[in-house]
Amino acid sequence: MTHAIVMDAPGGPEVLSFREIDTPVLRPGHVLVRPHAIGVNFIDIYRRQGIYPVDLPHIPGFEGAGEIVALGDGVTSVSIGDRVAFCEAADAYSSDVAVNATVVLPIPEAMDIDIAAALPLQGITAHYLVNSTFPLEPGHTALIHAGAGGVGLLLIQLAKLRGARVITTVSTPEKEGLARAAGADVVIGYDNFDVVARDVTDGLGVDVVFDGISKTTFDRSLASLRPRGMLVLFGAASGPVDPFDLQRLNSGGSLYVTRPSIGHYLLTPEERAWRWNELVDAVQSGRLDVRIGNRYPLAEAARAHEDLAARATTGKLLLTP
Prior knowledge:
The protein is an alpha/beta fold and 321 residues long. Helices cover 29% and strands 25% of the residues. It contains 10 helices and 15 strands.
């Protein structure tokens, strides 16, 4: 037996129940990971709310890091005792998680396991956004929303490593300090951010907006772009964007809008290894700082969801089984 967070119906944080369940039965090609820490992400909230439908009962979570304690048939690429991270698992809010052996991410011996747990989903997201969705280069200006959030802090740092100028939005003086420490060139509030973005680019607009907020920022994010600029919607912290007239992209300056998903940027083992190894190298060399905002016992997952949804947190939230 093991312990997990289970929901029997969609709803608010109160639907998350901490209970004893059967230990996962390993299918061939899978490993059993005993997590040291589990990542909390907005997609967990979307699934809990029913925005993304799931089969019920449902155990939330995709991400974590821990030690392999059992191997399924046919697994030869890893061994019992190996430390691994993951962000492509199901049912991760659990004391034991079954993970396909082909998607586990090796953790170097010198790397802190909490940092390894905090890095995969948000780190790989930030990596594909600045390297693949819109490959940033010196001379580009990027507007990054929620600059003190888990993805935001990583995005700022990776954008600066690629030589871009970074404007970011935050909601409090504390978050402003964190965004500036991460390397943001201009830190602004959400009021009239499109006007400010144009002011600091001499009226031209930014090359790209990385927007994980969506509903409440979408219109002004479009208005922040230069001709042929790109709006990248990678999350929906304020809810999904309402349907809109595509003609607005023409009138706004032949604009682009994309809605990427991490799975489409981890299509091959080589791509997965490239992204993870670059992130790990950046952390170990001191070029990338991973901020852990708070830790919660697994049984208090509901409180973690409440704090994340209220946008009262900075950096990464972790659950500890």
